[in-house]
Amino acid sequence: PGVRQAAQETLTAFAPRVEPAVLAQAVPGSIDNLAHPHPGVRQAAQETLTAFAPRVVDPEVLAPAVPGSIDNLAHEYHGVRRAAQRTLTAFAPRVNPAVLAKQVPRLIAYLAHDDAGVRRAAQETLTAFAPRVEPAVLAQQVPTLVTYLAHDDAGVRRAAQETLTAFAPRVEPAVLAQQVPTLVTYLAHDDAGVRRAAQETL
Question: How many CA atoms lie within 13 A of 179 on its CB side?
Fold first, then answer.
């Protein structure tokens, strides 16, 4: 892993100075390293791809890195998760929205993860994706997010609320209106945190 990690770190350092066409040739190897058993290699590969994002001319070259980066949002090591989140945020303005849209359901599922770091990384990634993904794709996830507002874990409720805030400007008002009856029932919930999340969402 030491050699691979050092190679990735060198590529990251070279990114601002090397021709974009040369960088593009190094993308597939970096994508392969996103699944390396050693977390240091994974993190270094994510950092390389983040550095490459504004420099690689063809976004289609970057797109295959998206699923592996989503995988790494749920990695047990904080450094890997944060590096993956930075990659996905850097990719969001450049990659085809359809590629991003395919990953939205997985990200929504991560909002209910037991690990607060995974939830935070997923929420921040969804916020970066929201302006780029078709509103209909976001609308499909609104009922699940509203369900999360009644979750036992306050962290899940908060992640869902922040994601709904990011989605709201992009989703048709009628979609949000359909959730009002559910939110109203939450106002009488036994858990004060659920009541507060519903009130703030309304």
Answer: 25
* CB 108, CB 126: distance < 8 Å: yes
Nearest of 51, 35, 26, 50 to residue 1 by alpha carbon = 35
CB distance 151 to 157 below 8 Å:
yes
Q: Tens digits of per-residue pLDDT, 68-81?
A: 999 999 999 999 99
Tell me the average pLDDT across 92-118. Answer: 96
Check residue 53 and report its DSSP letter: T
**The one-letter amino acid at 177:** A
The angle subtended at Cα 129 by Cα 35 and Cα 131, nearest 5°, is 165
Considering only CA atoms, which of 67, 104, 98 is closest in space to residue 84? 67
Tokens coding 73: 């949002």
CA–CA gap between residue 146 and residue 114 (Å, rounded): 18
**pLDDT tens-digit series, residues 2-44:** 899 999 999 999 999 999 999 999 999 999 999 999 999 999 9
pLDDT in tens, 138-193: 999 999 999 999 999 999 999 999 999 999 999 999 999 999 999 999 999 999 99
User: And the tokens for 63?
Assistant: 């797109």
SS3 content of the chain, % helix, strand, coil (to 5): 70, 0, 30
**Main-chain dihedrals φ then ψ at residue 141, nearest 5 degrees:** -95, -10
Residue with tokens 């949000």: 176
